[in-house]
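Re: folding output
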Amino acid sequence: MGLTKWDGFLSLSPTAEFLFEDEFKLHIFGDTYDFPAPEVGALIDAVAEIVLPILLVLGLATRLSAFALLTGVIQLVVPAGLANFHLAWAALAVALIALGPGSLSLDHLLAKWFANQAK
C-alpha cells in the first residue's frame, strides 16, 4: 500500500493528497474530523507505510512500529476498513505488541549485546 502513495522518488502522488483532503478523516471519540494539514498527513502516512514495515521485517523497534501501524495507519485514519481488509493486519500488530520480536530480530540481538556490555 505504501508504494501506491508515491509518484517517483520523494514525490507524493496527487491521489495520496486527495485521499487526505477528501476521503480520509480523523476518527476520534466517535466523531469524524478533517485533517488539519492534509498534505503533511499524507506525507507522514506515506513515509510510515514504507518505513514501519521495513522495521518490522528487520525486527527493529518492533513493538513501537506495530503500535504505530495499528493506531496511526489502521485505526485512526481508516477505521471503517478494520472490519474487512485491516482486521488481519490489526491482529498481527496486536500479536507483535503483546509478544514482542522473535529471537532472530535485531531487537533481540541488541538486547543480548547490551546485557553483555552491562556485565
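--- second protein (sequence, then structure) ---
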Amino acid sequence: MNNSVGVRTRDFALAYLLLRATIGLNIFIHGASRILSGVSSFANSLVLMFQKTPLPGWSVDWFGLALPWVETILGFLVLAGLRTRFALIGGSVFIFVLTFGSTLRQDWESAGLQLIYASIYAALLAFRDKNVYSLDALLHGDDDEKQR
C-alpha cells in the first residue's frame, strides 16, 4: 500500500514536470524564434494586424518589440522550474493580455487557443506543490517563501 502511494506521488510530480516543461518550452521557443528572425519584423506584422482596432499603432509596436523577450524569459523560467510561482503568474497575465488583443481583433480561434494556455497555467499554479523536479526544489527545497 505504501509503495503505491509513493509511486502515485512520483507520478504526480513527473506529470507536473512534463506539463510544466512542455508549456515552458512552447513559450520559450515562441519568443526565441521571434528574436532570431527579427523582433522589428514581428512588431511590424502586429501593427498591420491591429490596424482596424482602436489601439494606437505605437502601442502595438512597443508591445510587439517587448513580447518576444517576455515570452523567452517566462518560457525559460517555467521550463526550468525557476521562480515557478512568479513565472506562472506572469504567464497567466501574459495570456490575459494576449486574449485581450485577440478578442479586440475578433480572432476567436486564437482566443480559444489562449483559453487552453490559461487553463494550463492555472492548473500548474494550483498544483505547484507537485513541482518536485525543478530548479526551485533543487535550490530551495520545500521552502515556499523563498519561491515567491
